Amino acid sequence: MPQSGALSFPKLSLELMEDLSPPGDGFLRLVRKRYRVSYPDGTVSAPFLYDAVDRAAIDAVVIAAHFADAGGARRVFLRSALRPPLTLRSRSDSPLPDEACDGALWELPAGLVEPSERSKEGVVRAAQRELHEELGFAVPLESLHALGPSTFPAPGFVAERHFFFEVSVEPTARAEPSLDGSALEHFGTVVDVSLEDALEMCRAGVIEDSKTELTLRRLAERLA
Fold first, then answer.
1. Which residues, 6+ apart, have CB-to-CB distance to 161 below 8 Å?
2. How far is it, in rounded angstroms, from Cα 25 to Cα 93?
3. Is 103 exposed, middle or buried (0-12, 13-18, 19+ CB in 10 A)?
4. How far apart are CA 157 and CA 58, in angstroms?
């Protein structure tokens, strides 16, 4: 397997020519800029527009909370999540003619890294907070362990990074989740399933959230 230094990225660079981003103060902000690309042979591309989105809290944490049951099987906690953008998908435009996308997903707990948490320790605090809000576990910072490097889940339109954590929990210590006040979290369901079953749900398309699948696979690799 090639190491990071063995891959040579082409010498391309972006030149910002004009910022055409409209004003906005919502949760998401449209970024519209005009660029051109400089190539290794000294030539440049024609100018082009590129749209992206930005937000004040740009990064997120994903947490795999797990425990061993009486038979020794490793189990993980999932949450139901209602995602309005998914309801915008048109079945008639889908490559899957029988697609039924109602916005419902099973996910690991996750949440945004606030601007005040932009540090190595701050990201862990964000994971600690989200674990309590979404699952109801209060754990010390030192019990949360990074689960591999961060990744860019959708680099084509947002610069969000995902930071992954795993934590071993005592299931009887779980309290009612405090939640964040969002209408979308009200009446959400928390379940625990075996890690093996969760991975099978990913393979079968029952779990469709990519950050959840990646975190589950990393957890299984660590515990192997």
1. 58, 59, 60, 150, 151, 152
2. 32
3. middle
4. 12
Q: What distance in Å separates the CA atoms of residue 77 and residue 174, rounded to the nearest whole number?
A: 11
Query: What integer is the mean pLDDT of 114-141?
Result: 96
Query: Could you tell me which residues are beta bridge partners of residue 38?
Result: 13, 44
Domain definitions of the chain by residue range: 9-54, 60-223
Is the whole-model pTM more than 0.70?
yes
| Euclidean distance between CA atoms 206 and 208, whole angstroms | 6
The band of 181, judged by pLDDT with boundaries at 50, 70 and 90, is low
Residue 13 tokens read as 């660079």
What pLDDT digit, counting tens, does each position of 32-61 carry?
999 999 999 999 999 999 999 999 999 999
How open is the CA angle 93-107-198, to the nearest 5 degrees? 105
What are the backbone dihedrals phi and psi of residue 197, each rounded to the nearest 5 degrees, phi first? -65, -40
85-96 in b/e form (b: 16+ CB < 10 A) is eeeeeeeeeeee
Domain at 60-223: CATH architecture: Alpha-Beta Complex (3.90)
